[in-house]
Amino acid sequence: MKLLMQPIEMIAWFTQEGIPNPLRYKLTSDGTASIVVKVDRIVTRSEEKIAGNRMILFRCQSEMNGLLKLYELKYELNTCKWYLYKA
Amino acid sequence: MTQRTIFHIDVNSAYLSWEAAHRLQHGDSLDLRTVPSVVGGDPTTRHGIVLAKSIPTKKYGIKTGETLYSARTKCPELVIAPPNYLLYQRCSTTMKEILEQYSPLIQQYSIDEYFLDYTNMNKLLGDPIEVATQIKDRIKHELGFTVNIGISTNKLLAKMACELEKPDKVHTLFPKEVPVKMWPLPIEDLFFVGRATSKKLHSRNITTIGQLATSDPHWLRLFLKSPGLLIWNYANGQDDSLVRTTRNIVKGMGNSTTIPFDVEDRQTAHLVLLSLVETVSMRLRQANVCAQLVSVSLRTSEFLSYSHQRKIPTPVDCTNQIHETVCELFDELWTGKGIRHLGVSVSELCKNDFIQLTLFTKNFEKQRAIDQTVDQLRLRFGSHAVIRSSFLNSGLKALTGGVIQDEDYPMMSSIL
């Protein structure tokens, strides 16, 4: 997997305990073409607080063009931003 | 009383490590700690000095406090990162959260240093060295930066132990280890010995901590006065200060600023002073104290420093009243040369609940009421919610001083 850390637009649902679950995100590359990816499965969820900054790390998988792809998403609690971390 | 166990926790090249960890978390592929890099201010506003440096800068001879210009001539490929004080504050608090799981007695000594009293905690958590290693590793894995931990029986020795070898190490310096581990070190490495003291000691042929420790304390007192006894005690590893959870009592407060351009006229200088008085007096009122002594300091573009102070008959905390005195002092002090740096400080503080007035001073009651209103507005809507119209279109900041607006930032101190 390659490190990308690209900001993305996200639709997610939150449990009553406040745990976010990513559903679908839009990836815009070079400001022109964009693709929408549906998150098929969340494999693992972990939390990190590097440099005191809390982030939730999701390892997910989706089917893209008939291939099963594994990638990582990050949610920054401080700014409420979502990133495509590794793909 | 049983012997105490004190930990001193110090972040390795703090500002730089925190910046590096923050960048790595945000997807930067380069770890700043592995290349020659520094954290430094903005040279265009004349704040261009090295605040922190990475370990690879050592071989280029870059020192903390030198100008970015000279650092860049020593190493052209040097990476320079701007300071981010909010990040430092956040890293420091998160680190404290981890430390709080190991002892209820923690003292924040500066933004990147903590003292932790581990006395008797071994009955609950185990051997101090093992626990210190565990703390060090947890900080490294959870927060992404490395620390040094010094263990000893008092704060001074714990702090000295922390300085022994860096980075990412746990050191002990118990009293019995002092002659072996501390005495061979040069005198400059001892806490409290600065440039002036080390010069005096060198001229008397004292070059190592061991030589200082074995010399006669009465002889030291002759030329160093009472600090001589203090450093003699420190050299022998003696210190009885406690790990305090409350801050020291504030004896004075002040703010200063380096102005991005040379100030040539009186009016601009008065405005800069006003912006400093705004923050200083706000801090006074927040602490519920009044000041009886006001002083002004300035540095010219030729790097000559001057200062002037005056006692005020009635204790003050009112912005306008302090500014009036400050301007008088400045006018007496200034010779007309270009000004690079201005500072305002106040001391001889007293409580503001009872003030002895004099018969012939102006009545500032109304001014104090408006100060209070402005403070409340700034607290609720941000420090720049209300500014004085004299700053409009002046190109100057309406409030200056302090590293983070509205926040209490722990500075370095020489008191353990």
Most extensive chain-chain interface:
A-B, 12 and 19 residues
- The overall average pLDDT of chain B, rounded, is 86
Number of discrete domains of chain B: 3
Runs of chain A in which pLDDT lies below 50 for 5 or more consecutive residues are none
- The CATH architecture designation of the largest domain in chain B is 2-Layer Sandwich
- In terms of DSSP E residues, the strand content of chain B is 15-25%
What is the subunit organization of this protein?
heterodimer
CATH topology title of the largest domain in chain B: Alpha-Beta Plaits
Proportion of beta-strand residues of chain A: over 45%
What spatial order of strands do you see in the largest sheet of chain B? 5-6-1-7-8
Terminal CA distance of chain B = 21 Å
Order of helices and strands of chain A: EEEEEEE
Helix content of chain B: 25-40%
Number of strands of chain B: 12
Distance between the termini of chain A: 5 Å
The outline of chain A comes out as: globular
Q: What is this entry, summarized?
A:
The complex is a heterodimer of chains A (87) and B (416). Chain A is mainly beta and 87 residues long. Chain A is built from no helices and seven strands.
Task: Write up what this structure looks like.
Chain A is globular, with a radius of gyration of 13 Å. Chain A is an all-beta fold. Chain A has strands spanning 3-14, 20-28, 34-38, 41-48, 55-64, 67-76, 81-86. Chain A has one domain. Helix content of chain A is 0%, strand content 69%. Chain B is an alpha+beta fold and 416 residues long. Chain B folds into 3 domains: 1-172, Reverse transcriptase/Diguanylate cyclase domain (Alpha-Beta Plaits, 2-Layer Sandwich), CATH 3.30.70; 182-235, DNA polymerase, domain 1; 254-391, Dna Ligase, domain 1, CATH 3.30.1490. Chain B is built from 14 helices and 12 strands. In chain B, the strands form 3 sheets. A 5-stranded mixed β-sheet of chain B has the order 5-6-1-7-8. Chain B has a 4-stranded antiparallel β-sheet with strand order 9-12-10-11, with helices on one face. In chain B, a hairpin with a 4-residue loop joins strand 10 (289-300) and strand 11 (305-316). The longest helix of chain B has 21 residues, at 266-286. Chain B is globular. Chain A binds chain B through residues 3-5, 48-53, 55, 83, 85, and chain B through 18, 21-22, 24-27, 29, 87, 90-95, 142-145.
